[in-house]
Amino acid sequence: MLIFLYGADTFRSREQLRKMVDKFKTDRDPAGYNVVYLNAATDDPDRVVSQMLTIPFLAEKRLVVVENLLATKKSILQKHILRLIEENKIPESNIVIFWEEDAVAKKEKITRKKADVKDKKIKKEKEVDAAESLYEILSKQKFSQRFELLDNIKLAEWMSEKIKKAGGKIGQHALQYLVENCAQDVWLLNSTTDQLIAYCDGREIISADVELFLRTRSDDNVFNLVDAIVSGQARIAFRMLSEQYEKGEDANFVFQMLMRQ
Q1: CB neighbours (10 Å) of residue 81?
Q2: CB–CB of 156/170 below 8 Å?
Q3: Do the Cβ atoms of 226 and 195 come closer than 8 Å?
Q4: Residue 92 pLDDT more than 90?
Q5: pTM, whole model, 2 decimals?
Q6: Amino acid 93: pLDDT
């Protein structure tokens, strides 16, 4: 069985991955002997392939998680796994979950690259891009799930449900303020919400509470921006500076905060 989890919303895709792994361990492998995590970008290619082909140990099923297969620059590994899938050589006893940060962006990048090659009229035989072929196959799998970024309305509904499940309460205005000021950063939204639930300790979260935590977060961001500038990380510094402007911060305010730090 092949499962493909991908999309720009890495928090929800990670959450789904964790749920699947937890369920597999509970139902089939409490000791964790048949669950393995692999990173195609950093692990040895031979190890990735061998783990995908290894049969279960004292169990009926084996779960293999492979991350960043489309993002890796190891084209030989991509081609090898593509061939295994096309020739149906992965053992039926193995459940393989492919997790990708944003396969759609990867596919668009490949398409642009091919267009550039065509425009430059490079005279050489075109090689089929394994990453694109993998995307085409995996995205059509029965258990493929794409996690797109939610708009503010859906994000508020999703966050409200999570808060309830965590035993917290939040007012509508506070929820709206929280979602709008986290700018679709679900990781930030989730961590801030966890802190708010702990801080309010059972009482309803109000706008003043949200403002308190987001203001603290803003100061932290400026501190991190200063750190990036001092260490000479220009790309990171410019990105963080752009984020400040996107949030509506005035240039003079940002400059003053930098000087204060």
Answers
A1: 23
A2: no
A3: no
A4: yes
A5: 0.71
A6: 94
